[in-house]
Write a structure and sequence with these properties.
single chain, mainly alpha, about 250 residues
Length: about 250
């Protein structure tokens, strides 16, 4: 079996795990909202995702920014040194704006009543998260090496992050999540992997998508933890951040 085939199978396995998470959140008998321990699981996962971004992904963004400048030198793009980090900012602002749109829908910003507002709210969330899952899965298949532990680190951090997203989406609107939301998110994970193998984007585009993922992870994690009504658990969040930071530092040592 060639190295390319091994990498394709390894990344497919990780993408399948992502997809399973969106289905499994409906099946697992882990604590749900309002039950003891429900928020601790999500907060611990959020801490892991944030640790991965700040300890591993942000330094990688700096290197990607340098490579982006070199790869696009002949195209004379405006502000090339800020393109990757600017995309991270764009993702952060985009998902912040989405949170406000969702709140508007929840408050009945539409004209079809509470049920229609709930449907708008869920479609906004599920659609944006599906795009986000697609990008995460694409980058995994496009950039991660099957060996060396990098794939495992990425898959664990993003998988647990997706667990928190699934928990939040299903808690917000279980009927819609169970009827089509989980299928859309799981499909996005597999589709991202397939596009990376069959129709990969130019390397410069992959560098900017890396920035998108970093900004989106930070914003999505904060929106799930910081609002008072989300009832985030600080010590569980801290434990996840400390544990995964220790793992990353030990591996990089």
């Amino acid at each position: 079996m060639t190295p390319a085939m091994i990498q394709a199978l390894a990344t497919l396995a990780a993408a399948a795990i992502f997809a399973f998470i969106f289905y499994g959140e409906s099946w697992w008998q882990w604590p749900k909202k309002g039950q003891p321990g429900s928020r601790r699981v999500v907060s611990f996962s959020a801490g892991i995702a944030v640790a991965y971004v700040f300890i591993h992904l942000l330094p990688e963004l700096a290197a990607a920014s340098v490579e982006f400048v070199e790869a696009t030198a002949e195209h004379a793009l405006p502000f090339p040194r800020h393109r990757v980090h600017g995309t991270a900012l764009l993702a952060f602002v985009l998902f912040y704006g989405l949170a406000h749109m969702v709140n508007w829908a929840r408050l009945g910003g539409g004209h079809g009543g509470e049920e229609e507002a709930e449907g708008i709210h869920f479609r906004l969330l599920a659609g944006s998260y599906a795009l986000y899952v697609f990008v995460v899965s694409y980058l995994m298949a496009h950039q991660m090496e099957a060996g060396g532990g990098q794939l495992a680190l990425y898959a664990v951090a993003m998988g647990l992050h997706f667990l928190g997203l699934a928990y939040s989406l299903r808690g917000d609107c279980q009927p819609l999540y169970d009827s089509w939301g989980r299928h859309a998110l799981a499909g996005a994970a597999i589709a991202g992997w397939a596009v990376a193998l069959l129709a990969p984007l130019p390397e410069s585009a992959a560098f900017t998508l890396l920035g998108f993922v970093a900004g989106a992870v930070i914003m999505n994690t904060m929106t799930s933890e910081l609002p008072e009504e989300k009832e985030g658990r600080f010590f569980a969040f801290l434990a996840g951040a400390v544990v995964y930071t220790a793992v990353l530092l030990l591996i990089d040592h």
